[in-house]
Design brief:
Elements: H1 2-18, H2 22-29, H3 38-49, H4 53-66, H5 76-79, H6 86-91, E1 93-97, H7 112-115, H8 122-131, H9 153-162, E2 167-173, H10 199-209, E3 213-218, H11 223-226, H12 243-246, H13 273-290, E4 294-297, H14 307-323, E5 329-333, E6 343-347, E7 359-364, H15 381-393, E8 396-402, H16 412-428, E9 436-443, E10 466-471, E11 474-479, E12 487-490, E13 504-509, E14 518-521, E15 524-528, E16 539-545
Parallel strand pairs: 1-2, 1-8, 2-3, 3-4, 4-5, 5-6, 6-7, 7-8
Antiparallel strand pairs: 9-10, 10-11, 11-16, 12-15, 13-16, 14-15
Helix pairs in contact: 4-13, 4-14, 9-10, 9-16, 13-14, 15-16
Protein name: alpha-L-fucosidase
Family: Belongs to the glycosyl hydrolase 29 family.
InterPro entries: FUC_metazoa-typ (IPR016286), Fucosidase_C (IPR031919), GH (IPR017853), Glyco_hydro_29 (IPR000933), Glyco_hydro_29_N (IPR057739), Glyco_hydro_b (IPR013780)
Length: about 550
């Protein structure tokens, strides 16, 4: 018996010394990998994703074929023949939606998954203090908490329609790599995990049932490096078991301030060709499954390693849309695409003057984040109306973002803001929808600071600030504050200032049937006002001229 016990003890000792314990195995799996070659970092992701190679290759074959079977080819000379759809120029106002797993922690911003792995950041400190070490609770562990239990896509679509929006652009996949649609290229989708539902697919049906256009926003390409902070410290990002979700997590090599990326010629981050092909296939998958009227991309599609794949996608998308009776468009930032091959989008910013080539601003109702966070602050409906009017007068559209909670509810403050915009558009929409820019955007002392990330820098507008739009033979003068007296004065329309202008026949205040008394004098068009209407951030005057063409 003693000999048997001794032999058993020796056996146990050999087992203990020959194989690491589970704790040691976890430590090995989560150990830092930032020093590995970029090709090696991509390898785990390639291996984990290989189960979908068949479907990926099918989509890539579609891209190749469609990119040469229509009007467009995958080169910028051909793609510069793109024309902005008239429906988009008429629409003017859209809703953007950032909703995903990052709405579960609801802290900091929608960049929570990146910042939680950046050692010493505010979000990193919050995460470790709240949820524990990154080796024990990583971003993947938020997915079961992302339930969307109160999500009602029909109610969302009705709200968006009542806000006056004409198109809706949900984020199909953000930088975090979790798809909000039923992707056939990943295990890590809302259709297979968390809510176990095709969230944006359900919204697409509801939005179109309300007569609104559908867009799709993909931020997949930025995922290439988005979680690189997890490579630089022990974390689950380094565990090959989660490579399909977290990978490639390349260590970014760039000389730009985040988030931004205007200087992509200074970005040397490695992009494995297999990853670029996967991005292309995922974009094509969205087009084939959901047929969006818009494909919206963040800035990194302009990175040098990605651009050739972008040209392939653009040719595929434009040709594929035409096959289905659509005229698709791509929103891009900075100089990611040739100027005429899509529609420029300026993030949280505006322009100082009319841009001859059509453009768009995207910004958010919330001031601190694109996704839902607790204790955020919000823009007023009046602020958004002023922004919309200024942008439309300069030949652009406004795409306004909201961030729903993880359960699928939209904060009441956001709903009320959107409904306030909708109430103004219900009265004054004729001065916005279907209009075009005039020869000058407006007049008055208040100027916007042009460029990205300046949308809240504009000071309050005054009664001297007007913005102009046209439709047919009518000119709309939109006054951005109600004057203190009983008269509005439009200086641009003075009798002496524009001698080529035809005679003004009538002036109406939108929302009222009565024609207003007016007089054209040397210092401007003087309009006698009725009693002040209910509180509104701006009032619009329809100015009718003789003849059948615009002034």
């Amino acid at each position: 018996m003693m000999k048997l016990t001794r032999n058993l003890s020796l056996l146990l000792l050999l087992i203990a010394t020959a194989a690491p314990c589970s704790t040691e195995l976890q430590a090995q799996a989560t150990a830092t990998t930032a020093s590995e070659r970029p090709e090696a970092l991509a390898e785990d992701w390639i291996k984990a994703s290989s189960k979908y190679d068949g479907e990926r290759n099918r989509l890539l074959a579609d891209v190749e074929r469609e990119g040469h079977e229509g009007k467009f080819r995958p080169d910028w000379n051909s793609l510069s023949g793109f024309e902005v759809p008239e429906w988009y120029k008429d629409a003017k106002f859209g809703i953007f939606i950032h909703w995903g797993v990052y709405s579960v922690p609801a802290f900091g911003s929608e960049w929570y998954p990146r910042e939680m792995y950046r050692k010493g950041s505010e979000i990193n400190q919050h995460h470790v203090a709240t949820y524990g070490p990154l080796t024990e609770f990583g971003y993947k562990d938020f997915i079961p908490k992302f339930t969307a239990a109160k999500y009602d896509p029909q109610a969302w679509a009705e709200l968006f329609k009542n806000s006056g929006a004409k198109y809706v652009v949900p984020v199909f996949e953000h930088h975090d790599g979790f798809t909000m649609y039923a992707s056939g290229l990943s295990d890590w989708t809302a259709a297979k995990m968390g809510p176990k539902r095709d969230l944006v697919g359900d919204l697409a049906k509801a939005v179109r049932a309300e007569g609104l256009h559908l867009g799709a926003s993909s931020h997949r390409v930025e995922h290439d490096w988005f979680l690189d902070g997890g490579r630089e410290q022990p974390s689950d990002v380094n565990d090959p078991k989660y490579a399909m979700f977290y990978g490639p997590a390349q260590v970014a090599k760039k000389n730009v301030t985040e988030p931004g990326g205007a200087e992509l010629d200074d970005d040397w981050t490695y992009v494995n060709p297999k990853y670029a092909e996967d991005w292309l296939a995922r974009s094509a998958e969205i087009v084939e499954k959901y047929h969006p009227d818009i494909m919206y991309y963040d800035w990194w599609i302009g990175q040098a390693s990605v651009r050739p794949y972008l040209a392939k996608f653009a040719a595929f998308y434009y040709n594929e849309s035409a096959k289905h009776g659509q005229q698709g468009l791509i929103n891009f930032k900075f100089k990611a695409m040739e100027e005429h091959s899509g529609v420029l989008d300026i993030e949280r910013g505006q322009l100082a003057d009319i841009r001859p080539t059509y453009w768009q601003t995207d910004t958010s109702v919330s001031n601190k984040s694109w996704g839902y966070i607790e204790n955020d602050t919000f823009k007023t409906s009046g602020f958004i109306v002023h922004q919309l009017v200024d942008i439309v007068s300069k030949n652009g559209n406004l795409l306004m973002n909201i961030g729903p909670r993880s359960d699928g509810t939209i904060p009441n403050e956001v709903q009320q803001t959107l409904l306030g915009v909708g109430a103004w558009l219900k009265v004054n929409g004729d001065a916005i929808y279907g209009t075009r820019a005039w020869t000058t955007y407006g007049e008055g002392p208040t100027k916007v600071q042009p460029g990205s990330f300046h949308d809240t820098d504009t000071v309050n507008y005054t009664a001297e600030d007007f913005r102009f739009t046209t439709k047919g033979s009518d000119l709309f003068a939109i006054e951005l504050a109600w004057p203190s007296g009983n008269e509005a004065v439009v200086k641009t329309l003075s009798a002496a200032g524009r001698p080529e202008m035809r005679k003004i026949e009538a002036v109406h205040l939108l929302g009222s049937d009565a024609a207003l008394p007016f007089k054209q004098e040397t210092d401007g068009l003087h309009i006698q006002l009725p009693s002040k209407p209910t509180e509104a951030p701006a009032c619009a005057f329809r100015i009718s001229f003789g003849g059948a063409t615009r002034p």
